[in-house]
Structure formats: structure tokens, C-alpha cells
Specification:
heterodimer, A: MetI-like fold, two-stranded antiparallel ribbon, B: mainly alpha, MetI-like fold, globular
Chain lengths: ~300, ~280
């Protein structure tokens, strides 16, 4: 970039410098991401247990998965879990952003408070909520019984009808701030004149929202939802700590099933196959996002 | 017309205030329960006498935490790993980003793309084969092993973020330095870095908090107490399905503090980094 076209010797020198500056980062990518990724594919084609040599079995692992009831239920759970969690985070995040965009005293204090969950380690979020949901002494049952709202103990995480809802609630709690932060930044970047012009044209508050605000936020919406979908769909810590996929695999999702298969049952090949099955869906998101994130000027 | 607008505006304001109150309760309740639990004696935590707030606040749980658990050791390990990873990603990120932003060489666009893709590949896909990589390198159960694997997400992110920022530093400034006989690396350190402090702040924040908060790799690649980090150590306070909630909530509270304090300090820049579409969540 620097300078105009020069002698080829200078260019070669520049390229040499560039590669040497990049080499540590490239080594990291090659050995810690690219190589493991391809070896995951190779692993998924083998019948391999921890500590034993593998046997090449072609697509057998994948074929076996699609005949497996637990796997099929997991597939359905994963889709449901991701869609509902992302949807709720979106609605709640937008609500939060719109509220924080209203003029109000102490708004930056409220903003700081509402964004705090985002800084908390996932493990701590999950443990914390597990304790809130606790059957005998958790906050929820404790509260409901103290105020006579229920007479029975509710097993939040062990009840097949409630467990998935509870997991999603926790994921939404932890993930909403990402949405509200990006949406709020997007809202604040909308020029005031647009609203003034709309108002002069007689647009109501609702009309302004749908015809000025929403179109202006479209790119922010898309980027945030795609990023969050990747991370929501592949996070296994929440399920691992809250329910371990139970009761009766009601809350089993792909990343957790891969984890228990590879490290619990020690079937590395099968575990790799499970984690790769959902990858084609993510590839679409990754490709689209990469293009977005490399656009020179952002909004 | 004007009157209806102002009435609907006032209505919106009150709906907003009401929702804000609800959202604040929803967001802060877990923190309340965490801190309240850590200040209770066991009698108030469990069973029929469980209370909604500590009737007789006590620091006993914290005493137990420091005396009977390896909490301090975990915190030390987390600190070593988070600081090590932050320093390494700053250095590697700056060097790589400078090359991508300012130098001409074949393959530049491809590498920039590769970096972003790398950042987006989820750890859930990599932890199984990475385990074998670390075993071969004999890095299981070492601080180095964790620092190294955390580089796999912090280096692509920091390089990408800094690349965008370095590009926005005016070329003329650097050209002047180069004409004055400054080397490339010299101009990176003397011209570009001083103008990129906000981006360096964002990278510091993300590298530190992501390493501090990480738990999947920390769980899979570490077995010994000597290396275990706080996020995985916490779940070990569980003994045979019995949770020691008092000390556990105390530990949760204390180990949330470092990322929280970082967040409070770096808030201003972080939100900017976020709008670039760049955060795990």
C-alpha cells in the first residue's frame, strides 16, 4: 500500500517482511485450527477409541447416527433451542436497546447494569442459575413458596416439560447484552434528521419505527444474528452444567452430545462425526459473515 | 395533532420506564442471589429454613473458600494464562495486522479472509482433535498448552481488529517517518501504535476476558490442580453431586470481578469494537 510501484527487488523485500511478520499468526492458525479441523474430518471416518489405534470405516459413523433415535431427537432439540434462544435474544435485545435510546436521567448507569451479564464467565452464569433453579433451596421455589404462589416444589431442571425452557432462559439471560449493545450502537448512528423529516411528513411514532428505524438497522440485525447463531448453536457449557442433556435427552444438543460421546464414552471418531454433522449449516453463516467483516468501511 | 403526539410520546416514556424496571430485575436477580448466598450461613441456605436474604450476614463461606479449597491456586492459574495470552495476542496481532494493512504481497486478501474464517470456527468442533495435537506436543496439563490453544481464537480476532484500525491511520504520517529513515517496525511502534490505543484496549479486553472465561478447552486439556483454572475449578467444588453453595457462590462472585472490572474500565471502546461485529456471546 505504501508508496508507488517500485523496483521488483523492493517489492520482494516487502513481501518477505510481510510473511515474516505474519508467520507466528499463521503458525497458530495452521497448527491449532486448520490441522485440527481436517483431522476432525479424518477422525470422523474412523472407528477410534481414546488411546487405541483407529480403523477406517468410511461414512459408517454418519450412517449410524441417522439411525439413532437419540441423535434424531438431538437434531430436533438443537434446531428448536437455537431458533428460540436467538429469537428471544433478538426481541429482548431490541427492546432493551430502544428503551436505553430514550432520553432519561442516569441512562448510562442503566446501560452499564443491563450489559453486565455479558462480562460474566459462562460457567458462572450456568452454576448461578442452577442454584436459582434448585429444587429444595433455590431462589425460585423459595420465593414462590414464601409468597404462597405454589404449594408444591417445582423441579425446574428435572421436569421434561420445563427443562428446555429453563436452559433457554439462561442462554437468553447471558446472550441478550450482545444484541442490545450492537442494536443500541446502530440506533444511535441513525441521523436525527431522518426522524424530523418523517415527522414533517406526518409519520406516526409507529410508522417512524417501521420505515426509518428498522431499515437502518438491517445490517446490524443480520451480523448480530449470524454471529450469535454460530455461538449459541455450538455452546455446550450451559447444557453441561444445567442438565447434562437430561431429563431423558430432552435438552440434549449437538455440541454436548459430541462432548459426552468423545470424552464420556471415549468414542473419538463418533464424537467428531457428531460435531461435524451440523457444520455445513454453519459454513453458510461463516462465509456470509466473513464477507461482511472484511468490508472496508463499516456503516 | 401536536397534542396526540405528545400524549403518545408520554405513554411511550412510561412504558419504557416500566420495561426498564422489569429488565433490571431480570438482569440483576442472579447477582443478588449469588451475593446473598455467599453471605449466609449454611442454616439459611438449605432446607426449610432457607431465607430470601441473609438474616445474619457472615463471611464464613469466604473463610471456607480460602482455607479449604484450592481457590487461590485456581485464580493464580487463570491469571497466568489470561495475562500470557493477552501479551502474546497483542504482539502477534500487531505484527500480522501491520503486514496485512500496510505491506503489499501476493496472497494478502486470502490471508485476511482465512483469519476471519478461523475466528468463526467454533471451539466445539476443534476440541477433540486438538486434544491429540496437545498430547503429541506433550502440552496437556500445562499453562503453555492452554495459552497456546487460546491463541487460536484471540490471535485471529486481534489481527483482524487491528488490521481495520491500522488502515485508518493516515498513510502520510507513516511515509514521513519512513522518509526520515525510520524502519518499518520502527514506524509501527512509533507512528501507528500510539494512534491505535483504543484498538489495543479492545484487544486487551477481549483477549483477557475470553481466556479468563473460557472453560471448554480448560476442562478438556487440563486435569491437575496445579494448572486448573477458576472456571473449571469451580465445578469441582461439587462433591458427589452435593454442591457447597455458600463457598461456591463466594468463589463465583470473586472470579466474576476481574472481567467485570475490565468491562467497567474498557466499556467505552468495547462497545465500539462490538459494532464491528466481533464478540462471543
Amino acid at each position: 500500500m505504501l508508496g508507488r510501484p517500485r523496483r521488483s527487488g523492493a517489492l520482494r523485500q516487502e513481501a518477505w517482511l510481510a510473511w515474516s511478520l505474519l508467520s507466528p499468526a499463521l503458525l497458530v492458525i495452521l497448527f491449532l485450527v486448520a490441522y485440527p479441523f481436517f483431522s476432525a474430518i479424518y477422525l470422523s471416518l474412523q472407528d477410534k477409541m481414546v488411546g487405541a489405534p483407529g480403523r477406517f470405516v468410511g461414512l459408517d459413523n454418519y450412517l449410524a447416527l441417522f439411525r439413532d433415535d437419540v441423535f434424531l431427537r438431538t437434531a430436533w432439540n438443537s434446531v428448536l433451542y437455537t431458533a428460540v434462544a436467538v429469537g428471544l435474544k433478538f426481541v429482548l435485545g431490541l427492546t432493551m436497546a430502544l428503551i436505553l435510546d430514550q432520553p432519561r436521567r442516569f441512562n448510562n448507569v442503566f446501560r452499564t447494569l443491563l450489559f453486565v451479564p455479558w462480562a460474566v464467565p459462562v460457567v458462572i452464569v450456568a452454576l448461578n442459575w442452577r442454584w436459582i433453579f434448585d429444587d429444595l433451596s433455590g431462589f425460585l421455589n423459595n420465593f414462590l413458596i414464601t409468597f404462597h404462589l405454589t404449594s408444591d416444589i417445582i423441579s425446574w431442571l428435572a421436569d421434561p416439560r420445563l427443562a428446555m425452557g429453563c436452559v433457554i432462559a439462561v442462554v437468553v439471560w447471558a446472550g441478550t447484552p450482545l444484541y442490545s449493545m450492537t442494536f443500541l450502537a446502530g440506533l444511535q448512528a441513525i441521523p436525527r434528521e431522518l426522524y424530523e423529516a418523517a415527522e414533517l411528513d406526518g409519520a406516526s411514532t409507529v410508522q417512524q419505527f417501521f420505515f426509518v428505524t428498522i431499515p437502518r438497522l438491517k445490517t446490524v440485525f443480520l451480523t448480530t444474528v449470524m454471529l450469535s447463531t454460530i455461538w449459541t448453536a455450538t455452546n455446550l457449557q450451559f447444557v453441561l452444567i444445567l442438565t447434562r442433556g437430561g431429563p431423558g435427552s430432552r435438552t440434549e444438543i449437538f455440541p454436548h452430545l459430541a462432548y459426552t460421546t468423545a470424552l464420556g464414552a471415549r468414542r473419538l471418531g463418533m464424537g467428531a462425526a457428531i460435531s461435524l454433522v451440523f457444520f455445513p449449516l454453519l459454513v453458510v453463516l461463516i462465509v456470509l459473515l466473513t464477507r461482511r467483516m472484511l468490508r472496508p468501511a463499516d456503516e | 395533532m401536536a397534542r396526540t403526539t405528545s400524549r403518545s410520546q408520554r405513554l411511550l416514556k412510561w412504558v419504557g420506564n416500566g420495561l426498564l424496571a422489569v429488565l433490571l430485575v431480570w438482569t440483576l436477580l442472579p447477582f443478588y442471589w449469588m451475593i446473598a448466598t455467599s453471605l449466609k450461613a449454611d442454616r439459611e441456605i438449605y432446607g426449610f429454613e432457607a431465607t430470601l436474604y441473609p438474616h445474619r450476614p457472615t463471611l464464613a463461606a469466604y473463610g471456607r473458600l480460602f482455607r479449604t479449597t484450592p481457590f487461590v491456586k485456581y485464580v493464580r492459574n487463570s491469571t497466568i494464562i489470561a495475562v500470557g495470552n493477552t501479551l502474546a495476542s497483542l504482539v502477534l496481532g500487531c505484527l500480522g495486522a501491520y503486514a496485512l494493512a500496510r505491506l503489499r504481497f501476493p496472497g494478502r486478501a486470502l490471508i485476511a479472509r482465512g483469519l476471519v474464517v478461523t475466528y468463526l470456527v467454533p471451539p466445539a468442533l476443534l476440541f477433540i482433535p486438538l486434544f491429540s495435537v496437545l498430547s503429541v506436543l506433550r502440552l496437556i496439563d500445562t499453562h503453555h498448552g492452554l495459552i497456546l490453544t487460546y491463541l487460536s481464537f484471540s490471535v485471529p480476532f486481534s489481527t483482524w481488529l487491528l488490521m481495520g484500525y491500522f488502515r485508518s491511520v493516515p498513510l502520510e504520517l507513516e511515509e514521513a517517518a519512513l522518509v526520515d529513515g525510520c524502519s518499518r517496525l520502527g514506524s509501527l511502534v512509533r507512528v501507528i501504535l500510539p494512534m491505535s490505543l483504543p484498538a489495543l484496549a479492545v484487544v486487551t479486553f477481549f483477549a483477557f476476558t475470553q481466556s479468563w472465561n473460557e472453560s471448554l478447552y480448560a476442562n478438556v486439556f487440563v486435569n491437575s490442580v496445579e494448572v486448573r483454572t477458576i472456571t473449571t475449578g469451580l465445578s469441582l467444588f461439587v462433591v458427589e453431586d452435593v454442591f457447597f453453595w455458600g463457598p461456591m457462590m463466594g468463589a463465583s462472585f470473586l472470579s466474576t470481578l476481574p472481567p467485570l472490572i475490565m468491562y467497567l474500565i474498557f466499556q467505552r471502546w468495547v462497545v465500539k469494537g462490538l459494532t464491528l461485529g466481533a464478540v462471543k456471546g
